[in-house]
Amino acid sequence: MNRYLALVTTLLVGAALGAAPAWAAPPAGVCHDPDPGRPAVAEQPWAQLLLDPALVWQHSRGAGVTVAVVDSGVDGDHPQLRGKVLRGKDFFEQSNLPGNFDCVSHGTGVAGIIAARPATGVGFHGLAPDARILPVRISAQDIAENGQSLRIDLDVLAHGIRYAADSGAKVMNLSIAGYADFPAIRSAVGYAVSKDVLVVAAVGNGQSEGGGELPSFPAAYDGVLGVGAVDIDGARTTSSQVGPYVDLVAPGDGVLTTTRVAGHAYATGTSYAAPFVSATAALVRAARPDLKAPEVAQRLIATASPARGDGHAYGAGLVNPYRAVTDGLDLSDPAALPAHVPSPPDRAALADAAWHDRAGTVAGWTTAAILGAIVLAVVVAVVVPRGRRRRWRPALAAPLPARPEVVEPPEQMFLVDR
Length: 418
Prior knowledge:
One of its GO terms (molecular function) is serine-type endopeptidase activity. By secondary structure, this protein is an alpha/beta fold.
């Protein structure tokens, strides 16, 4: 109760002074074991070198698109996110708290990959820097390495998904995964899909070497893009789950992202691969607002770069932001061909063709007959005089020359001395 009393007191004092409350700072007492602040990193991360956002920024930067980050909250005070994180809502504390604060940096990291603005002296930035972030806080702790959604209250998650769908989000990032199909989550995701929200979900990090396919929800739900993780060499990370729910892959091994309290950190997992796809979806929805969510998903899948493995591990391939925005795909179904109606035959043309055919046949036989007669006349002119001179007796052929006798050398027997 003390932490809520402190929060209410802060709001009342701010209102009395006419000042806007500092929503992004965690309310007193909410973060019991907050993630410590980390320093800024100047190096440009490999994921940005691979996807090269500057190319696609000539066509789209995600302006006008709201991406819901249903996660641990988002630190709206981070310098690269300040001004682009909406108030949002906190469903975890079950109070009238916003969602634009973060105790563990997980949601802040996801939001940074999507929309962090470029900053002087910092190599990292988001893929869709003009997009807005709607923070929906449904957890107070980091998601476990296996991505188990059982650690999150199902009703809290379902309410958060529905809230995001009703709050104008066009893309929803769910960096969570579990092995069980819960009706409440299935229903909430279906509601978001019905509201034309493109839902993007991590496939989870529960895979083991040589292990079989595992279930993954919400990635396996209809209308959801499931995202796996690859490393700098394009190979699937060993923990990234495999199954028919993998639609795309994205960088997810040692990727640089934002942390709470202004810093950066390297992170690994499908949780950080999913926001690269969410950001790409935001770029497409900004450039092509006429497209519905299924059409955007189709573009992302159709324009993916080839991957080094099969579909259950890599889906359609590596997400390609530039092609997703710029390729001139026709997403409509092919038009039906008109029924074939044969034209009536041209009797005059047929008769003319028949006449030419007959004339050609007659001319051919006539030519052959004339040539035959000429050959016969030549034969008669040569053979008859010679026959008369010999009085039709057969001519004798000239005798063959005598062949010299060949003397063969005597056979020899070769003895082997015992």
